[in-house]
Amino acid sequence: MERKLVGEILQATTMSTDPDISLSSYDEDQGSKLIRKVKEAPFVPIGMAGFAAIVAYGLYKLKSRGNTKMSVHLIHMRVAAQGFVVGAMTIGMGYSMYREYWAKPKP
């Protein structure tokens, strides 16, 4: 009885070796996966690029900040970068909702 139960548990936990099962997410290379993800959510890379641009601009302006304290300069750059990312996410969500509910072809 106990041996049969252990066998059933092992059989349930082992992966299938059926060659007909295709795992498409594992068949992709990095480039095609990135392209697919960008097509699904185009505003994510825009938000990331904007964040990187604002951080680069903040680092460039770090030396010529004048009398502004370092902490105030860093807070302003952080708020600008976060604002850009949140804006890109909001526009992306609106775009996704538009595609899903209004631009979807009628069956």
UniProtKB/TrEMBL annotation:
It is found in: Mitochondrion membrane. The keyword Protease does not apply. GO terms for cellular component: mitochondrial membrane. Pfam families: HIG_1_N. It comes from the Eukaryota. Residues 15-107 form the HIG1 domain. The chain crosses the membrane at residues 41-60, 80-98. InterPro entries: Hypoxia_induced_domain, RCF1. Keywords: Membrane, Transmembrane, Transmembrane helix. Coiled coil: none annotated. GO terms for biological process: mitochondrial respirasome assembly; negative regulation of apoptotic process. This is HIG1 hypoxia inducible domain family member 1A. It comes from Callithrix jacchus.
